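Worked example 3 (structure in, sequence out).
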């Protein structure tokens, strides 16, 4: 009996230690933002890029040193940033409803911007929002309608795809859209996940990698049906095919199995407005998380002093896939 009790005790201690060792740790990486969004990890540079939409800034953090450098655009809301393949130091950014190429080490103001494309012509109050690059180097990005405070005009935006061949007239794939947001692809590139935030749904399309087309849209996870608080915002996917979704006004990141439509995990943050997520680090095991304090009242600012910060979750046991880069030959000389 004593031996059995000892063995049970040893097993309990092992389980306890294992749970402690695998418990995710949330760290505050960079403070002082207003509306951080659009994180993009560059494997080649070992660096994280992200934007502050309200402050009209693009940030870059060297992961080895922790040093952060910033570009002040000063031309309008900046919503996404991605690196450009085979063009070191060149990034694509969206400002208002325009796409620009920019040299990171170039001039400090908006004179560094080189116009690539304009969308939503005739809708002057629209702006670009979230976007991601597929494995063929095409940028999928969306727009949203006029903002008044935290309210947005519905059904005024679109989901576009732009590549090296159609920059003068990006392809429209979904219209209308209210607030185009998170995008992710399965590892085999057969499916593309998509979020139009006000629907509170995560949808999926059949994806054709060869011609960059999508079809057969359907919902695979409903925040309302699953009683998940907040609104789905930015999104990424891990190597096991599970989705990680930022919950705006929900104060958390959730992990979803899209095949079963099942909520697997919830990771709470000291900020209610969680905006986006991306895998980074040399092993792609760190989940970087952006947040916002825009729209918080005075009491909420006091309760959430780290709202508007960049966070990192470590020790989730999951691992991401490398971020794709936009392909545009000759971008540095464009």
């Amino acid at each position: 009996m004593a031996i059995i009790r000892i063995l049970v005790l040893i097993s309990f201690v092992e389980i306890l230690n294992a749970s402690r060792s695998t418990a995710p740790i949330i760290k505050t990486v960079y403070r002082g933002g207003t509306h951080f969004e659009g994180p993009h990890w560059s494997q080649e540079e070992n660096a994280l890029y992200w934007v502050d939409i309200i402050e009209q800034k693009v940030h870059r953090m060297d992961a080895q040193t922790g040093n952060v450098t910033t570009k002040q655009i000063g031309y309008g809301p900046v919503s996404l940033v991605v690196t450009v393949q085979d063009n070191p130091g060149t990034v694509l950014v969206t400002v208002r409803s325009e796409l620009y190429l920019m040299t990171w080490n170039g001039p400090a103001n908006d004179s560094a911007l080189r116009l690539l494309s304009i969308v939503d012509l005739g809708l002057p109050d629209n702006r670009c929002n979230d976007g991601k690059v597929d494995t063929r180097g095409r940028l999928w990005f969306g727009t949203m309608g006029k903002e008044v405070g935290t309210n947005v005009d519905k059904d005024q935006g679109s989901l576009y795809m732009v590549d090296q061949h159609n920059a003068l007239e990006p392809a429209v794939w979904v219209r209308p859209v209210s607030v185009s947001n998170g995008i992710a692809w399965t590892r085999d590139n057969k499916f593309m996940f998509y979020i139009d935030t006000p629907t509170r749904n995560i949808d999926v399309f059949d994806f054709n990698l060869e011609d960059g087309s999508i079809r057969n849209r359907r919902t695979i996870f409903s925040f309302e049906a699953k009683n998940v608080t907040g609104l789905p915002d930015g999104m990424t996917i891990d190597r096991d095919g599970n989705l990680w979704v930022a919950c705006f006004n929900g104060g958390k990141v959730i992990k979803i199995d899209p095949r079963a439509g099942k909520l697997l995990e919830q990771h709470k943050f000291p900020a209610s407005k969680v905006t986006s997520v991306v895998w980074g680090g040399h092993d792609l095991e760190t989940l970087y998380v952006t947040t916002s304090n825009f729209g918080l009242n005075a009491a909420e600012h006091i309760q959430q002093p780290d709202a508007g910060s960049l966070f990192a979750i470590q020790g989730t046991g999951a691992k991401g896939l490398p971020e794709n880069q936009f392909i545009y030959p000759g971008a540095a000389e464009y």
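Notes: Residues 1-21 have pLDDT under 50 and may be disordered. DSSP finds two helices and 26 strands in the chain.
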